[in-house]
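Quick question: what would this complex look like in 3D?
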Amino acid sequence: MKDPYLFQHRNILGIEQLSQADIFYILETARSFREISTRAIKKVPTLKGKTIINFFFEPSTRTRLSFEIAAKRMSADTFNITASTSSVQKGETLIDTAKNLEAMNPDIIIIRHGSSGAPALLTRFVKAGIINAGDGTHEHPSQALLDMMTVRDNKKNIEGLKIAIIGDIAHSRVAHSNILGFTKMGAAVRVAGPATFIPPHLDSLGAVLCTSVEEAITDADVVMALRIQKERQDDPLIPSLREYARFYGINKSLLTHAKPDALIMHPGPINRGVEMNPDVADGDGSVILEQVTNGVAIRMALLYLIMGTQGVSS
Amino acid sequence: MSDTIIILQSGRLLDPVTKTDETGDLWIKDGVLVSAEQPIPETAQLIDVQGKWVVPGLIDMHVHLREPGEEYKETIESGTRAAAAGGFTAVACMPNTKPVNDEASVTRFLLDDARNASTRVYPVAAISKGSSGKDLAEYGELKEAGAVAVSDDGFPVLDSQFMRRAMEYAGSHGLLVISHSEEMALSKNGCMNEGIVSTRLGLRGIPAAAEAIMVYREIALAELTGQRTHIAHVSTLASTDLIRQAKARGVRVTAETTPHYFTLTEEAVGEYETNAKMNPPLRTKEDKQAIRKGLQDGTFDCIATDHAPHSVLEKECEFDLAANGIIGLETSLPLTLNLVREGVIAPLRMLELMSSAPAAILQVPGGSLVEGNIADVTVIDPQMEFVFREDTIFSKGKNSPFINRRLQGRAVLTIMGGRITHQI
């Protein structure tokens, strides 16, 4: 007899740690929670009395709000700390700050941090469950999960799909988590971008590098563009946004190479006219706002599932 | 100094200079190796070292003692105590202290402070004032004060013309230039080897080319100036090949590598293990193999540790913010003995790498058991197993990827100038 599936993760640090069964289970759980957000009274008592801290060291609008809404719709008490309001400004170390938070007995800490591995570091010092809301250029698991949910909603199955991811793969935690996630679910992930945007040993993540955007997009079921991170100016990655838009931006004529019903995705925030033309972002096939809606459901599912494993020895 | 006679009896005497390997007694008198006398004086201290190796004291030409300025990480006292425990009788200490060892007064302070140390201490001075790469330090006075070499360790010299002049001027004062070979533009913000693991962990990588480019520059400059140049802590296959080729055409270049480069790979970073973070970083298994081959075929002249103690303040933090470096003095010997056990190098080659070659490169005494030499002697039990536990570490730094590892081979007795500095 096969053992029944049991979700066992006490922290969500990355897609890397999740199995295909875990991902299915999270997506199914999220689907069941999505309906709550459509009710007139958008609140269930599931996490009543639980304390959730949003600990954000980097600017974020949608991810932080999405986690906060998810927590509040499940009746948890949520608190937001940003780097500028925390003692980090006074020179306190991440570990000391975390230990102080721990002393106030939170159940879950959601962390976004500029250092890859910061959420993993926290798990060594706090008992609360840790959810990675984006760490450096490492992973952004909740984003990949909401992307997979969006694709699954529209395409029924992820297995067998062709997913094109275009842009700065090397510096994108969204791309990293999505490559791992979609390949785990049986999709073929192809990426394209200038070589300055491609990480070493890309194949070790499971993605295939294409020599042009056109090649990556050809017959694609999903076309995902990544945000050009304008803040990375210490390294000469591209000569200009203008040239990038011309050779790597997603426009209508490029999309003729994709499947006619291809989904258009973007993790946001969009630089319109750079990585994606407005007529594509707002056109047929764009599921960019569905991604945002699903984000709340995915985060409700993660909070619920992680809460269920707290206090359970692994 | 001690005027008592110490006789190490029935040991396996290994001398990398005379290439001898024989069982016998070693006599020490007044801090010097002497010939046996009959009868044995009653006051002589007899130590049975049967089954153990009796070797010239080990010399580590690349350590960070952190004094002056960062005594919370290490002091000359604690660092040399750790060295003695690791079988070392002499260490060369790098200049990236606070203040930088860029003038004679700092060198004199170090040597004054080292008078009661557990090993000989050979200060390496800075190539430039403040290690800023702009003005030459006063090599003549530094040499007079006791500096044995100059180095840019920790703050690589970027300007090639400056490095050329440093080599030329150092040559005029008989000082060796030790190069920390790193092209900083390529390694900028990098915190581990650029490769599969850095991609998996989302960490900025340091490509092997960052080292090879500068190793080649130093070789080209050594060729241009005709001066002796030593390449520190070589970590890659490409650099090893460059050094091998340079030596083959007669360039006056020597090189060291460290136990971590021939023992570990980038995989040791695992899940953001800051005790596997150092500069240059741990590389791939191909690099590790190439380093081993270089130790075997003579490309490398010596094994140094790059002993770099840090406190938990610098290591228990985000990986990209953590300090570079690991301690090495107390693990170097067992890790190098692994190479002997695996047949990569013979015992005499190991002692060349760890004693006679660094003595020759730094032009300091030691490295041989021949009578008349200073009585710097290490007795090694190559079989002894131990677990490298944090609470047994003599260094103030506990930043080692080898903690809780079972290691084999250990210094059971260390004698510096006839004085016992460590004994188990």
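Answer marked as accepted. The mean pLDDT of chain B is 97.
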